[in-house]
Amino acid sequence: MLEVAEPHNLLPVLSHSISAALLDLFLEIILETASTTIKNAKILLVDDSSTQLLLLREILITGGYINLHETTDPRMVLELQNKHEFDLILLYINMPYLTGFDVMDLLTKHNSTQKTASIITISGNTDDQTKKRALENGANDFIAKPFHVESILNQVSRQLEGQLVNDKCH
């Protein structure tokens, strides 16, 4: 024989089911909004090689990033950062005129904007000293060349997600 629950006994079950469904919907909306925000992040690519810039640009476009800027002249980074307030800078270390280390020093000393960009440095020098120096000079992460597409996309996403969380907390 089928037992029918009393209506007052169904309320907690229905309430829990509705709450779980609303929570799932809420989380889905938050994740979708965060993903859209991250994909619209302003990213500056800095490398003296236009070929490397093209490769990085294509990788990021493939990952869904759409607000990309680039320069082959590291002397332009400070001006560009002050003008655009980038969320992220992918910065090659070994360049003429100014190294990536010099650029990070300039950004730290002359940061006239409220927003500080996350920096991911890129280098073919994979020794511990280069990585340590990059991180000590203000880099948030380090990518060794040759790099993999998934590695670039994961590190960019991780930096932008961390920045989004940090912005929301402050």
Looking at the overall shape, the CATH architecture of the largest domain is: 3-Layer(aba) Sandwich
CATH class descriptor of the largest domain: Alpha Beta
Q: State the shape.
A: globular
Assembly state (oligomeric): single chain
Instruction: Outline the biggest β-sheet.
Output: 5 strands, parallel
* Sheet with the most strands: spatial strand order: 2-1-3-4-5
Q: Top keywords for this entry?
A:
alpha/beta, 5 strands, 55% helix
Structure report:
This protein has 170 residues and is of the alpha/beta class. It folds into two domains: 10-39; 41-169, Response regulator (Rossmann fold, 3-Layer(aba) Sandwich). It has six helices and five strands. It has helices at 7-39, 50-62, 77-84, 100-109, 128-136, 149-169; strands at residues 42-46, 67-71, 88-92, 118-123, 141-144. The chain has a five-stranded parallel sheet with strand order 2-1-3-4-5, with helices on both faces. Strand 1, helix 2 (50-62) and strand 2 form a beta-alpha-beta unit. The longest helix has 33 residues, at 7-39. The radius of gyration is 22 Å and the shape is globular. 24% of the residues are buried. The mean pLDDT is 84.
